[in-house]
Write a structure and sequence with these properties.
It is a single chain. With 190 residues, the protein is an alpha+beta fold. The protein contains five helices and ten strands. The strands form two sheets. It has an eight-stranded mixed beta sheet with strand order 2-1-3-4-5-8-10-9. Strands 6-7 form a two-stranded antiparallel ribbon. Keywords: Signal.
Length: 190
């Protein structure tokens, strides 16, 4: 049985060191360490690949890195892809999110998800599935930027505005979503 948690939930689990509680086995059936490494590094641009640290969902280091980014393969419990590469600020954010602790960015943080994701509510940081009123968004390739709240005030929160938008506006976990490619087709809520 696959337990579905949004990818954003998975990053919190990694940052908090609680990955195996919900994530399942580190290697999905038939997936090798080489497959996980390739998947994880597909989240970022080619110039970052050699210097990124890569860890699996048990915290095992698959590749040592030196550029300050930690890349993770798609969560094994996810029916789809959502690899990600996070800087130290994002890892701190994820730990706060997972533990429902306050978080205020005092510096810029950048995360790469160039394979897109499987979706999350644009309004509720803890929503586990789409509803008619939570603005569920399945995003295509994108960057995520954490910044001090005053900087984020300049951006809209509408995910359909045609450009960057603030996700989870007004919460401690708000961040800027920067689409860099097309979104996959989405089913609409009725």
């Amino acid at each position: 049985m696959i337990t579905r948690i949004p990818w954003r939930g998975a990053i919190g689990l990694v940052a908090a060191g609680l990955v195996m509680g919900l994530a399942g086995p580190a290697v999905a059936e038939g997936e090798s360490e080489a497959d996980m490494l390739e998947d994880a590094l597909s989240a970022t641009w080619p110039g970052m690949v050699a210097g990124a640290t890569v860890v699996d969902w048990e915290g095992n280091v698959l590749q040592e890195g030196s550029n300050g980014y930690t890349c993770l393969p798609s969560p094994p419990n996810l029916a789809g892809t959502a690899p990600m590469c996070l800087d130290a600020t994002w890892m701190a954010w994820a730990k706060a999110w997972q533990n429902e602790e306050p978080f205020t960015a005092d510096s810029l943080g950048i995360a790469y998800m160039l394979q897109g994701d499987e979706g999350a509510s644009n309004l509720d940081p803890y929503a586990m599935e789409p509803t008619a009123d939570n603005q569920w968004v399945v995003e295509g390739p994108h960057l995520m930027i954490i910044a001090p709240p005053a900087i984020l005030e300049a951006f809209p929160s509408d995910p359909d505005n045609g450009g960057p938008y603030v996700m989870w506006e007004g919460t401690d976990y708000q961040h800027l979503m920067v689409p860099v490619g097309a979104r996959p087709a989405q089913e609409t809520m009725e």
